[in-house]
Amino acid sequence: MLVLRAVRRALPGRRRHRQHPVPVALEEDGSTTMSSTCLRLTALLLGIAAVATLATGCGAGDDGKTVTVNIGYQSKTINTVTAGTLLRDRGTFEAELAELGKAKGLTYKVEWKDFAAGPPLTAQMLAGQVDIGSMGDAPILVNGSKTRDHADVKSELIAVTGYNLRGSLNQIVVPLDSPASTLADLRGQIVSTSVGSAAHGMLATGLSAAGMTLDDVKLLGQDPAVGASALQGDQVGALAQFVPWPQKLVHDGKARLLYDGGSAGIPTFHAVVANERFGAQNPDVVTAFLTAQRETTDYLNQHPLAAALRVAEITGLPAEVVYLYNGPNGLVSFDPTIKPQQVDALGTLLPFLKSLGALSDLNLGEFVDDRYVRAVYGAGYETARASTAAPAPLAGTDSVCGGAVDGLAGASEVWFADTTATAVARTPTCLLRQIEAKGGAVRAAYVPDHATGTRLFAATATWVSDPAAGPDDRLLPFAIRADAQQYAAAHPGSAVIDYQAALKAR
């Protein structure tokens, strides 16, 4: 332990976050009530055997010159691509290690291990088989809690991959023919979610705001892909999930959005965790990983369409869905720095997970450690950490309405099927004019929700025609049908219409 502390003190710029107490309860009575059956289900889904090995995943080979680094990632969780799918594809980490190996006289070998979700990745970290991994905020807390009492596999949160400060990476969708228009309409229905996930917390928070609790629905714990199939098979009334599953169902014409997690205003994100002892013994390897992650992040932000196409090719996910999240003004902001709002969000999520029995106490001030990413950024870290501006803002010139779209709240984008680039528009109304003027097939069109600015598919939005608005602002898109109806009711002369009617009304 003394040696470990000495190594930590030797690292430049080491800094710990103080824990931010957040007295926020997810239920009106300050707790989350679940049946004993649900609690047992939670244990089955989230419980990970606390078995640790004395060996770390990274070690020298028989010749003492080859070092294996084990990286865990989730290929289809597209807001971790900068620490997983895209990072692996670009070979940036291997390139960093090759340079490091030359300097140290070693050969580094990277073993990439793909996981469907965070819990099995955590199990492998507990077994000493993963040195660095990426997962969502709720699984990260479970990871930190499960590993904290085992010095050889104790983990720490060292960087962020992608985030949404509103929480719009978690959403609830229902079948297209569902009569539900608000969360209150889910009372008594079966709702599928990944128990213990941030999406589960979003569901609890949303129900609480609607005057309900989790006991008012029949909660069914399922992995995202299983829940998506259950929704399409009419086995559940709603699906509460995280990126990219809700919008994939919307894009495929299998569901419509009922509730956006951004309504709660609680940030959600994915991040990188590392074996603390491994980092102390191999700080240059961790630094190389985060250097490669930063380079991959810069590439994605500078070439969002090319990155989305490549991720789609690798994962089999629709490119249109990947670009919804990862494109300019997308639902995900890619930035490795650890921001105070994200740490605060962990403090909000922690009591919810404790109420489920998914974890015990976790000191966030010890668990969150930005010393590696701080070293990667150098003097520019504090500025980058403080910024929440979109790293890849939508910019360009509107070819139909005219004018620049840079920084405009209504900025929209269309991806025509016969082009290798996208076109921008100043407003959703101008976007519809472009689509009509072009006359060709549209691969995807993206507009911001009128009330929240959340990026959504134009073709699946609910539109409102407001004749009292300006000529370039008469057609307003909404992600939630109830929000569109509320706007129309408050603006005499307005009418709720569908996408096809909006195209004709441009």
From TrEMBL:
Signal peptide: none annotated. InterPro entries: SsuA/THI5 (IPR015168). It comes from the Bacteria. Residues 165-306 form the SsuA/THI5-like domain. This is ABC transporter substrate-binding protein. It comes from Nocardia rhizosphaerihabitans.
